[in-house]
Amino acid sequence: MKAINAIRMGGVDVLPLVEGGKGVAVSNGITAGHWAAGGGAGTLSAVNPDSYDADGNPIPQIYHARTRSERHEELVAYGIQGGIEQARRAHDIAGGKGRVHMNILWEMGGAERVANGIMEGAKGLIHGITCGAGMPYRLADIAAKFNLHYYPIVSSARAFGALWKRAYSKAATLLGGVVYEDPWLAGGHNGLSNSEDPTKPEDPFPRVLALRKLMREFGLGDTPIIMAGGVWWLEEWEDWIDNPELGPIAFQFGTRPLLTQESPIGPAWKRRLLTLKKGDIFLNRFSPTGFYSSAVNNEFIQELRGRNDRQVAFTTEAVGEHVAEFGVGPRKRIVYLTAGDRVRALAWEAEGFTEALRTPDSTLIFVTPEKSREILADQTACMGCLSQCRFSNWSQHDPDFTNGKKADPRSFCIQKALQNIAHNAEDESVLENNLMFSGHNGYRFATDPFYGNGFVPTVRQLVDRILTGR
User: Fold this and answer.
1) What's the rounded Cα separation, in Å, for the pair 158 and 166?
2) Are the C-beta atoms of 227 and 249 separated by less than 8 Å?
3) Peptide bond into 399 cis (omega under 30)
4) Is 433:300 a contact under the CB 8 Å cutoff?
5) CA dihedral of residues 336, 337, 339, 344 (deg, nearest 10)
6) Residue 76 has what DSSP assignment?
7) Which residues, 6+ apart, have CB-to-CB distance to 392 below 8 Å?
8) The dihedral of CA 58, 64, 68, 71: what is its sign?
9) Could you tell me the CATH superfamily of domain 7-276+445-467?
10) Is the distance from CB of 105 to CB of 48 less than 8 angstroms?
11) For residue range 277-321, what is the model confidence (pLDDT) as tens digits?
12) Strand-pair partners of 7
């Protein structure tokens, strides 16, 4: 195994090991601080970060306002307060070693306001800002305002080229690195384009090489590329290390830091990670963001799959083959299905899926009365955690704070699902009924001898293990 040597990143020499940011209180100041103390770049998440009461307990993010736009203001305030507190924790633990980065999702609600608010309140505590989930053109402006290095997350050379030409070329000196997030292997939200097949993963090497070639055209030959997604043992990436074709490369670890003593996820979640098998991670498009995402295929995901499978197209007038009358809702308003779809719909009703909910695409999905009430309650309680949400039809842009479409019951409230699993993962029922993001290598916890007999390392022990190549 080649030696893992420090590289220049963010103006200092650090180990080429980066903690991947995981939103809604999973990558926090404690994990980021310990990772930085180990000599790498730790990453705290600014996506709904926790703040704490006088006893050090997380403050539940409860929303009291009457309207969605007012609740959105509460969400932004929670984000700024929590981000500042997490930055202080990370800075104190790191003790001046490594780098502390902040991760933010461009398509999260109030992203720019939260980023600016945290940076104002945590000046000197954060060394860089990482951002993906969209095309964050104004990331460079935020970095320049606070004289910070920035690290855009992209999944192709084409995406970086668009960002560079439109915005980043104006703040070239602050570009600390470019994160290549593999759209087939990374956990959480993935950057698959419409031209890429989600069922046919591509080799990351030629994609990263194309990114490097483009970066060299822009004079960025020495700017690190951070490989994210699918990284487990570095010995499996040995041909990337000190490769003159690729230039300086760092490696991001998002899934492995979940299973550390400092990781804030619940004990049941940690135990579950040790039992995952190959194929348990499911690439899906249920997220209200509209992006693909990778998550454990638990009962939560299976219910969404069933909800989407129990779907038929309808018309409001008899047209073509849509001539079979079908009553929808309490008043049994008539819509028209094909004869075959009417038979299917009646069969679903006989199984207990008696509530037909309309989607923006002129289809009906069939769910139980209990699930229907849950969907409608979650849509009503929306607090605008995304810039736009297809589940609730929220948009953070006034005057009407709507995306102009019907709320889509085929999706779910991502804020609720991630808050639940981040703070209540003490038993299996919580794990089964909420969103459990994971990279596609999550099954390797069960096969890696490092975790034998249920061993859970400290962050420092994990970093030391990674440095051996394993």
Assistant:
1) 12
2) yes
3) yes
4) yes
5) -140
6) H
7) 68, 288, 378, 379, 382, 407, 413
8) negative
9) Aldolase class I (3.20.20.70)
10) no
11) 999 999 999 999 999 999 999 999 999 999 999 999 999 999 999
12) 14
Q: What is the CA radius of gyration of the chain?
A: 23
- Summarised one tens digit per residue, pLDDT across range 2-59 is 889 999 999 999 999 999 999 899 999 999 999 999 999 999 999 999 999 999 899 9
Rounded alpha-carbon distances, angstroms, from residue 326 to 103, 329, 349, 467:
48, 10, 12, 63
User: Can you give the length of the chain in residues?
Assistant: 470
Question: Which tokens go with 144?
Answer: 């320049």
For residue 27, which amino acid is it? S
Angle between helices 111-121 and 68-94 (to 10 degrees): 40
pLDDT of residue 394: 97
Joined together, the tokens standing for residue 327 give: 């009553």
Q: What is the DSSP string of 410-426?
A: TS--HHHHHHHHHHHTT
Q: What are 77's two structure tokens?
A: 């305030």
What does the alpha-carbon distance between residue 383 and residue 295 come to, in Å, rounded to a whole number? Answer: 23
Tally: H helices and E strands in the chain: 13, 18
Q: Which residue has the tokens 């903690």?
A: 19
How many CB atoms neighbour CB 336 within 10 A? 20
Report the candidate in 388, 409, 408 with the shortest Cα–Cα distance to residue 400: 388
Each residue's pLDDT tens digit, 329-387: 999 999 999 999 999 999 999 999 999 999 999 999 999 999 999 999 999 999 999 99
Report how far residue 34's alpha carbon sits from residue 459's, in angstroms, rounded to the nearest whole number: 6
SS3 state at 21: coil
Per DSSP (E only), the strands in 230-315 are: 249-253, 281-284, 292-296, 311-313
Distance CA 418, CA 387 (A): 17
- Rounded Cα distance, 112 and 277, in Å: 38
pLDDT value at residue 328: 95
| 191: its two tokens | 């950057």
Kindly tell me if the per-residue pLDDT of 60 is higher than 80. yes
Domain boundaries, the chain: 7-276+445-467, 292-432
Terminus-to-terminus CA distance in the chain, angstroms?
A: 9
Task: For residue range 395-437, list pLDDT tens digits in order.
Answer: 998 788 999 999 999 999 999 999 999 998 777 889 999 999 9
Beta strands 149-154 and 128-132, pairing class? parallel
pTM: 0.95
Instruction: Give the model confidence (pLDDT) of 117-171 as tens digits.
Output: 999 999 999 999 999 888 899 999 999 999 999 999 999 999 999 999 999 999 9
Provide the token pair at 14. Answer: 């650090």
Query: What is the helix, strand, coil percentage profile of the chain, to 5?
Result: 35, 20, 45
